[in-house]
TrEMBL record:
Organism annotation: Cyclospora cayetanensis
Residue ranges of every copy of the Replication protein A OB domain listed in the record: 147-233
Keyword entries, A-Z: DNA-binding, Metal-binding, Zinc, Zinc-finger
Name listed for the protein in its UniProt record: Replication factor-a c terminal domain-containing protein
Listed CDD domains: RPA1_DBD_A, RPA1_DBD_B
Domain of life of the native organism: Eukaryota
Listed InterPro entries: NA-bd_OB-fold, NA-bd_OB_tRNA, Rep_factor-A_C, REPA_OB_2
Entry similarity comment: Belongs to the replication factor A protein 1 family.
GO molecular-function terms, A-Z: DNA binding; zinc ion binding
Matches recorded under SUPFAM superfamilies: Nucleic acid-binding proteins
Amino acid sequence: MLDSSPSGSSERYLSIGSLNPYVHRWQIKARVVDKSPLQTTKNNSRFFHVDITDSAGDIIRAKFWSDAAEKWHGALEKGKVYCFSRGRVNVANKRFSTLNNNYELSFSADADINPADDDGSIHVQRSLCSMPLRNIFNSTRECPFPTDVLAVVIEAQPVSSVTARSSGEELKRRVLRVRDKSQMEMEISLWGEQVDCITETAALPQVYGLTGLNIRDWRGARSASSTKSTQIIKAGSGLLQPEEETAAAEMLQWYTTTGSSLSFLSMSRAGSTGEGAANDRKPVQEQSIKDIKDRNEVSPDWRYMLLASFIDSTGSLSCRCFADMGQALLGSPASEVRRWDSEKKQTFFDWHSILKSHFRVMVRAELDNYNGEQRMRYTALRVEALDAHSLAMLLHQQLKVAVPSATDFAESKKAKLQLDNHGDISEPNAKRSLVEAH
């Protein structure tokens, strides 16, 4: 829908909820509620994004790349109101956004963005798209995935230093332990300057809203990590929506009265936590891999990975044979061949009839690039051993195509002779007709 400008001018604005890729000319008036730092990709491309909301409470993400990022990063300020136009509406990538909007905006350096009057019609509160901790634990989405969290922070651990493997940079890290009414607990890692938002001296427990967290999975344990665009909002600060402030107050009252005495399942660590589960912890008995293997009678499933050379009358071809193709070639399972001693293997490959057998092989040819050199790589897709009868039938078919049969040869010879005789007889008759006509 189109809304009239609050200032009473003839200028009209489109609401964020009405934006879609099929609307080409539009102008929106919105407040910047979040702004990410100016970042650099691996190919040295600069980018940043802002989250903007309008008077209807709808929110959308606007992205800026390359020259647009250099131009608009310093011009846009968090909390200010602007008029946005001459942008492109794209489908949002939900892997990198927690906003409740199926679209996102993209602006170039030629975009039209101007400051607008702030008449108070656009709220400064940020809406959370939060998930209960149990839903995060049970989610089937591929990790990592983004989400917002509204939970009780019960502990802020001291700051530690971590060295980034990619850049070797020293990073500050603080781990938070959070809980909610689903009786789940999760660890959240804050990085860089965000570690100062919640310190170990803060009055805890306290409800916080955290936006733009990345959920990661490691061997079944899930934890969250902040990103450069993560916002940490304390409940009661007036920066959350009224319904979220109410939910935060109820959650804090629940935890301080009854929740703190309950048992909580930690998705970031094995086992339960809480006062009710303190006596449930049992010491872990150290066992070697051999003991576990012998107890559970676990045996690996051995598979072939062979390189075979096939030869026919035209040349040779080296081909890779995996798993079932290797078994079809050798005639014995890989687990059985593995149990053979070296002498039996030597005898098998020296004297076994495989080296004198015939096979029909279907291969897949792929062009491979190795050290800047292109070469063909062949992989067996089907291997069929040919017995004497099958080999004879195959040779018969090939000979039938290459050399005509005796019957076909006789019939073709007879037809040629008849054609020649017919030509010899008809020629004198033709001459006689010409003479008589003359």
